[in-house]
Amino acid sequence: MAFNFNGETMANEIELVTDGDGLAVIGDSADVERFLLDQGLSTAPSKELDVRRLSSFAGTGGTALRVGSEVGANSGRWVKLTAESAQAVKQYGLMATKTPGVSHAMIGKPGEVKQWLQISQAPTALLSGPMALCALSTMMQQQAMQQQMDQIVEYLQEINEKVDDILRAQKDAVLANMIGVDLAIEDALTVRGQVGRVSEITWSKIQSSSLVLAQTEAYAIRQLEALSENLEKKADLGKIAKATKDAEPKVREWLAVIARCLQLQDGVAILELDRVLDAVPEDLDSHRLGLVKARRKRLDVVSTLTARLLTQMNETVRNANSKVLFNPYDAPAAVRSSNEITTGVMAFQHRLGIDSGHAASDVKRWGQAAGEVVDKALTTGAESATVAKVKAVNLADAAQGRAFDLTEAAKIRSAELKDVVQTFFRRK
Question: Beta partners for 76?
């Protein structure tokens, strides 16, 4: 039994552990569910954590005995954290642990008190072993990877693409090799789910899979880059419309191949972490962080590629809409195909957690373009009429001024002439 800061006996205590991306909630199953409900986390994506795997990291002697009893009474839940849900657990002041990036707190709910209170940051026997928190953080990372894999499966179902069929339709050896790797990884994940670990035999069957997946992903990326470059080179709107229409299904297919590669790479990482956990647990922390960094680099490459595609589609739409008046058929067709590509790329980005500030564009109608031309002509005409009027007024004013000057000059000359004549006759 634990105590709060006032010495009051606490019941319903649970442990919270976060790695920044997810939250592990460990305790009695009813208390875990109650906490998630109270904090508004019950609807967040979550997966069960097998806390039994932590018992082997608890140490020996009395600690191991206490862990044995705790494992029987406890369950665990991994919850994916969002910006909003992270604020819900921030109030408990989780403290950093010796495991990089991992924070911990223990909280409880005495009697009928509505608020969960912090008990201490010290972990219980279940997590107090030298490698227990490291093992738990690894399990949390595996759950996050599994969650991402599920997202990709949903994406592939949404676009109704059978990646295996796409791969089999290709004659390139790089893609053909991926089919065998795909089957081997799926088999290994199935065995892991049944046994609870990755044996040396299972690992030996898939340990070379990463190279094949990297080659396939790089090949698919090159194909998409070639499609983007081809669209950039088109100048004639008719050719742009045809090239964009032809590119749309190809972009969808290659994105599906990349998505499948990323899914299988996450699957290999899950198996790899299990293998390191069994074989060299002292390297687990550095290996876990290395896999996180490698995955981030892969996503950065894909993010740059898809951003380039979206930029090219925006340029195509802008170009097409500017020429719709003289290309009433090709311009709307190019915009529609570009929007299809944009929508597909954005769906891909969303499932992979890639931020995108792009959106599909509207097709400019011929009438709209014609109206804009008329409006511009009217505006230009009105401006020209105004300028002409000003010029006319200026000319009239100038002419009137000139006439006035001539009249005054004539009067002066006439007066001068009169004076000369009068002076002549007086002399006579």
Answer: 26, 49
Residue 76: CB partners within 8 Å, gap ≥ 6?
24, 25, 26, 32, 48, 49, 50, 51
CB count within 10 Å of CB 394 equals 10
> Residue 310, Cβ neighbours under 10 Å: how many?
21
Helix, strand and coil in the chain, % to nearest 5 = 70, 10, 20
Among 185, 214, 213, 202, smallest CA distance to 279 is for 202
The one-character DSSP state at 9 is E
Q: How many CB atoms lie within 10 A of CB 4?
A: 17
pTM of the full predicted structure?
Answer: 0.74
Higher-scoring residue by pLDDT: 333, 152? 152
More confident residue, 174 or 408: 174
Triad 174, 348, 330: Cα angle to 5°: 95
Query: What is the token pair recorded at 272?
Result: 């790899």
The answer to whether the CB of 343 falls within 8 A of the CB of 316 is: no
Q: Contacts for 176-185 with beta carbons within 8 Å, 24 or more apart?
A: 177/212, 177/215, 177/216, 178/212, 178/213, 178/216, 178/261, 181/206, 181/209, 181/212, 181/213, 181/264, 182/260, 182/264, 184/209, 185/209, 185/264, 185/267, 185/268, 185/271
Cβ 284 vs Cβ 130: under 8 Å: no
Q: Which residue from 101, 139, 112, 130 is spatially nearest to 25, judged by alpha carbons?
A: 139
Identify any residues that bridge with 352 across adjacent strands, giving them in sequence order: none
pLDDT at 349: 92
Cα–Cα distance measured from residue 264 to residue 146, given in angstroms and rounded to the nearest whole number: 10
* Averaged pLDDT for residues 209-225: 93
How large is the average pLDDT for residues 26-53?
Answer: 86
- pLDDT tens-digit profile of 242-270? 888 999 989 988 999 999 999 999 999 99
- Residues in the chain, overall count: 428
β-pairing verdict for 14-18 and 103-108:
antiparallel
C-alpha triplet 23, 27, 33: angle, nearest 5°: 70
Mean of the pLDDT values across residues 370-391? 47
pLDDT at 109 over 70: yes
In terms of Cβ atoms closer than 10 Å to its own Cβ (0-12, 13-18, 19+), residue 346 is middle
C-alpha to C-alpha distance for 313 and 142, rounded to whole angstroms: 36
Helix, coil or strand: residue 80? strand
- Dihedral angle sign, alpha carbons of residues 53, 107, 27, 71: positive
Question: Which stretch of DSSP H or E encloses residue 152?
Answer: helix 132-158
